[in-house]
Amino acid sequence: MLQRIIYILVILVSFSAKASFILLPMDETTQQNHLKAYGITYWCLDKNYKASWLLNYRGGSFLLPDAPEIRKECQIRGVSFEILSDTEEATILNEISSPSQNMETVILEKAPKIAVYTPKGKQPWDDAVTMVLTYAEIPFTPIYDEEVLSDQLLLYDWLHLHHEDFTGQYGKFFGAYRNAPWYIEQKKEAEALAAKLGYTKVAQEKGAVAKKIRDFVIGGGFMFAMCSATDSFDIALAADGVDICETMFDGDASDANYQSKMNYGNTFAFKDFILERRPEQYEFSDIDMTLKRRIPMEKDYFTLMEFSAKWDPIPSMLCQNHTQLVKGFMGQTTSFDPALIKSNILVMGTCELNGEVRYFHGEKGKGMFTFYGGHDPEDFQHQVGDSPTVLDLHPNSPGYRLILNNVLFPAARKKKQKT
């Protein structure tokens, strides 16, 4: 009889210890590939598995159901994982829910449909987001002006813009590259596309694209922009109906006193900026801090703000990382002058040495947007023609994690408003 009781107890204990969950730890020491861990989580959502984001728990870990195919996928992709029993999972969730802990559990519901705004001839390494999505094995659809202007943005939840120019000035590359074959060819292609779409000038066509993207966000979409797509997008909106392009860009002179005609009420994030009139200057306006900063590479870091995970889950999600100090990197638009950012914008990352803003978030209508300064988080000073970044060498990049936070963020279950 005693043996039977012991046998039953052993069976009960084995059942209670049965693995029911997989934890993808995201702390600095445990996870061997932070970037691909996002891809695993996206893959699970895409296959209709339940997933949770454990904000501020071990670097923003992910909790997944235990299934043989998930374990196998983690092993194939080189993602560290831990097996949890029901009891261990309950203990972690109880710790997170404690009012004394700045942590929160966010349920992820569905894999967002992702669009990347990029011209068809662009090299993959010209865009950090395209690179990291490919590396993390998160599917996306490249789209460009034709798709945007034909309202195909309605098919997507999330849109990315990178090193783009929405002002019609061809990236302000005129000064250094006007005789380069690639510049001449890109200008010719842009003019042909504008004409095909019914516009007499590239600036007019790009302005129409910017307004379509604006409407996408207002209607409830998520937009993530990096590098020159940030300020050139807002400049295009402010300059709607105003010719700010000089003769070498569009064949005629710019409007007289065009600076006084800027409508800052049209912009998402920036105010009171002064446009750069010189066509040979590789800069759009004084929004960007690239030419003003004097920060040596070894000291170039920015700090992520800390938010209340329970009360401010959105910025908390966007700032999840295994470190609060992120290595800086430059771009055509490296960072933003805080004096030119609207008061309703939520700053999430700043450089302590000069106060520049590197990373911020805002709302527009029913949608949201995030702007991130710089070109490539693992290439300090990216130049035209540089070799591509190999992300196998940077699987734990804090700078690239910020991009993937934004990719996964639209998957979160929307909480009902208290008011």
Care to describe what's here?
It contains 13 helices and 14 strands. With 419 residues, the chain is an alpha/beta fold. It folds into two domains: 2-108, UreE, C-terminal domain (Alpha-Beta Plaits, 2-Layer Sandwich); 114-411, 3-Layer(aba) Sandwich (Rossmann fold). The protein is elongated.
Summary, kept brief:
This is Asparagine synthetase B. The protein has 419 residues and is α/β, with parallel strands linked by helices.
Q: Structural class per helix/strand content?
A: alpha/beta
CATH superfamily descriptor of the largest domain: Class I glutamine amidotransferase (GATase) domain
Query: What is the number of helical segments per DSSP (H or I, 4+ residues)?
Result: 13
Percent in helix: 25-40%
Low-pLDDT runs of 5+ residues are 5-17
Compute the number of structural domains.
2
CATH architecture of the largest domain: 3-Layer(aba) Sandwich
Cα Rg: 24 Å
Largest sheet: 9 strands, mixed
- The tally of beta strands, per DSSP, is 14
Protein name: Asparagine synthetase B
